[in-house]
């Protein structure tokens, strides 16, 4: 019957995919755990208010919260695909992952590097200190969970050099535009580092961030190939980003 054939086709995984996804087992459990972690982070912003809560742009002035929102959207579609076994939702989830996973890796690298140099670069003097649990759920767990999802519950990415650099550049400089818009309304930047930099150095910062995000994309592709293997058939048709199951 067609429905049976469709179900079997969906449940076949890509030959370089370590585990079946969508599924109703381990994949769904990880996505539920991820969404619970992300919900904890958003709840932390509400129950621990600071001046950012009442400013233009709310906490979405922070790249951390933008990345967290994108990670939440990615895992929301991932869980829906687990529950419904919908190949279309699985494609959407994997397309979002192409942006959300490298972005979260970038956020983790930037945050922990700057924090190690000087915490005052990423946290204003007037802002309350983050609890360790919140610091980890904001700046470490999203990247870890998205990388795990990529390695074990997703088909391989096939984004090439130019689109990867272009996507990273669009995200980086769109964020700069957004930050400057918020500054016009609020009179302050969300990160003290921005206050300390002149415009040319901000260009260097955002351009460098776009480069690091592009490199993280290729690092994740390399890691995927290391964990799951590489295609060996020279005539094999390449999978498209977000390609669902292939036998």
Automatic annotation (TrEMBL):
<feature type="transmembrane region" description="Helical">
    <location>
        <begin position="95"/>
        <end position="114"/>
    </location>
</feature>
<dbReference type="InterPro" id="IPR006838">
    <property type="entry name" value="ADTRP_AIG1"/>
</dbReference>
<keyword id="KW-1133">Transmembrane helix</keyword>
<dbReference type="Pfam" id="PF04750">
    <property type="entry name" value="Far-17a_AIG1"/>
</dbReference>
<keyword id="KW-0472">Membrane</keyword>
<feature type="transmembrane region" description="Helical">
    <location>
        <begin position="199"/>
        <end position="220"/>
    </location>
</feature>
<keyword id="KW-0812">Transmembrane</keyword>
<dbReference type="GO" id="GO:0012505">
    <property type="term" value="C:endomembrane system"/>
</dbReference>
<feature type="transmembrane region" description="Helical">
    <location>
        <begin position="21"/>
        <end position="42"/>
    </location>
</feature>
<feature type="transmembrane region" description="Helical">
    <location>
        <begin position="159"/>
        <end position="179"/>
    </location>
</feature>
<protein>
    <recommendedName>
        <fullName>FAR-17a/AIG1-like protein</fullName>
    </recommendedName>
</protein>
<dbReference type="GO" id="GO:0016020">
    <property type="term" value="C:membrane"/>
</dbReference>
<feature type="transmembrane region" description="Helical">
    <location>
        <begin position="62"/>
        <end position="83"/>
    </location>
</feature>
């Amino acid at each position: 019957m067609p429905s049976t054939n469709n179900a079997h086709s969906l449940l076949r995984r890509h030959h370089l995919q370590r585990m079946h996804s969508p599924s109703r087992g381990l994949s769904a459990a990880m996505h539920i755990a991820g969404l619970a972690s992300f919900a904890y982070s958003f709840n932390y912003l509400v129950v621990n208010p600071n001046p950012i809560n009442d400013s233009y742009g709310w906490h979405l002035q922070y790249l951390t919260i933008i990345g967290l929102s994108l990670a939440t959207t990615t895992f929301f579609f991932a869980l829906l695909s687990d529950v419904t076994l919908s190949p279309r939702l699985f494609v959407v989830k994997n397309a979002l992952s192409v942006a959300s996973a490298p972005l979260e890796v970038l956020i983790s690298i930037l945050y922990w590097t700057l924090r190690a140099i000087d915490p005052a670069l990423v946290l204003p003097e007037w802002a309350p200190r983050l609890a360790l649990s919140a610091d980890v759920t904001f700046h470490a767990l999203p990247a870890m969970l998205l990388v795990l999802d990529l390695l074990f519950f997703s088909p391989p990415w096939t984004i090439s050099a130019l689109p990867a650099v272009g996507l990273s550049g669009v995200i980086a400089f769109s964020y700069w535009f957004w930050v400057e818009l918020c500054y016009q309304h609020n009179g302050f930047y969300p990160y003290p580092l921005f206050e300390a930099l002149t415009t040319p150095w901000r260009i260097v910062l955002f351009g460098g961030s776009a480069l690091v995000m592009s490199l993280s994309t290729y690092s994740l592709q390399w890691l995927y190939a290391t964990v799951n293997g590489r295609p060996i058939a020279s005539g094999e048709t390449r999978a498209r980003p977000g390609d669902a199951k292939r036998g």
